[in-house]
Amino acid sequence: MGRHTKEFKVEAIRLLELGERPASELARGLGIKRTLLYRWRDELRGKGDAAFSGAGRPRGDQLSEIVRLKKELKEVKEERDILKKAAAYFARDLK
C-alpha cells in the first residue's frame, strides 16, 4: 500500500465528495481500500488543516530499530546512574 502524501489524501477525499464515482470504484482506482478513504475523510472533517500531519506508522524495520534504540537508551541511562553514584561515593572519600 505504501505511504500517501497529504495532497494525495486531500485530492482523494475531494473526488469522493464530488460523488461522480462510487467510493469502491474510486478507491480501487487509487489503489487503496474503501474504508481507508472514509477514514481519511473523517480525519479531515475532524481535524481540518491539522489532518495528516504525522509521518504515519513506522515500517517494520523502523519499528525494530526503535525497539533496539529504546533498549540501548535504557541500558545507557542505567550505566550513567551507576557512574553518578560511584562518582559521588569516591568524591565523598576525597574530602
Offer a few descriptive terms.
mainly alpha, 2 domains, 95 residues, 74% helix, Arc Repressor Mutant, subunit A
Can you give a write-up of this model?
With 95 residues, the protein is mainly α. It folds into 2 domains: 1-56, Arc Repressor Mutant, subunit A; 58-95. It has 4 helices and no strands. It has helices spanning 6-18, 23-30, 34-47, 60-94. The longest helix is centred in the last third of the chain and has 35 residues, at 60-94. It is rod-shaped, with a radius of gyration of 25 Å. The relative contact order is 0.08.
Set out the fold topology.
Elements: H1 6-18, H2 23-30, H3 34-47, H4 60-94
**Helical content class:** over 70%
Question: How large, in whole angstroms, is the Cα Rg?
Answer: 25 Å
Shape category: rod-shaped
The sequence of SSEs as H and E is HHHH
Short description:
The protein is mostly helical. 74% of the residues lie in helices and 0% in strands.
